[in-house]
Fold this sequence. Notes:
Layout: E1 7-13, E2 18-25, H1 27-33, H2 40-57, E3 64-71, E4 76-84, E5 88-95, H3 104-107, E6 112-119, E7 125-130, H4 136-148, E8 152-158, E9 163-170, H5 181-189, H6 194-199, H7 202-209, E10 215-217, E11 221-222, E12 224-225, H8 231-241, H9 243-252, E13 256-259, E14 266-269, H10 271-289
Parallel strand pairs: 5-12
Antiparallel strand pairs: 1-2, 1-10, 1-11, 2-9, 3-4, 3-6, 4-5, 6-7, 8-9, 13-14
Helix pairs in contact: 8-9, 8-10
The structure holds zinc ion (ZN).
Amino acid sequence: MKIQLDALQPFLFDQTPIRGNIVHLNNTFQLALQHQTLPLTLKQALGEMMAASALLSATLKMEGVMVLQLQSKGALKLLVVECSSDLKIRATAKWDGDIGDVLFIDLIKNGQFVITLDPTEGEPYQGIVPIEGETIAEMLQNYMLRSQQIDTSLWLDCDGKNASGLLLQKLPNEAEHDADAWNRINILADTVTNDELQNLASETLLTRLFSEEDVRLFEPKFTQFNCSCSKAKVGNMLRMLGQDEVNSILKERENIEVNCDFCNKHYAFDKIDATALFASEAALISSYSRH
Ligand SMILES: [Zn+2]
């Protein structure tokens, strides 16, 4: 059985209300970070967050984007991963200075985890929790239990080239005929090694971990790196800065230059662009006021 890279494999236990996902990110992970020079610690943390974002997104019915943010006040400022409901992923980090040898757990001390669900239609929902646990997986498990009241278990690994993960989630129990199932399945899953998680095909991994259980596999879904930035979105950001601010920057230089934090794409707005930006806003306002 060949491992399927950049794919998410959903599965369900036949006898007990537990579902799961397995994900293997290879190109998705590497392309997402190819324009960023990151310390290995942050690269691995982002990889684990990317795997987790795909695993969690696939459990939601929502159409839209899930944003995972780890915010801290020390040398590490911010880790961000975004995953859309069709598993398009992007990621970035902000930090200060040299964090080469600092342990991840020390980087995120006093930090917080912010999860935003931004549906295509409707209002965004944001949950904020203090960081509890020493790994990304533990933090997210605690978040899911405290903030969402959903029993969720995660195993994540990133070796700097690939990011992989396994998720188990307890479904709302109609019948508790197998009350011990959640514990039993978790104990079995907990024997998974990073090597197995990274290198085994999903079917092989599930057979190895849960040989006594009936596991049903669904069609895999594919992941990819995709940055949703555009000149129009950067333009909106400049509109929010306001015309005065934009004009005063353009007095000092020819262009306003903006680089996308996620994909490093370069956007430049000169005076003509800026005029068009606010002219279209003025037109919009006057067209509103006419009605
Ligand atoms: Zn971009």
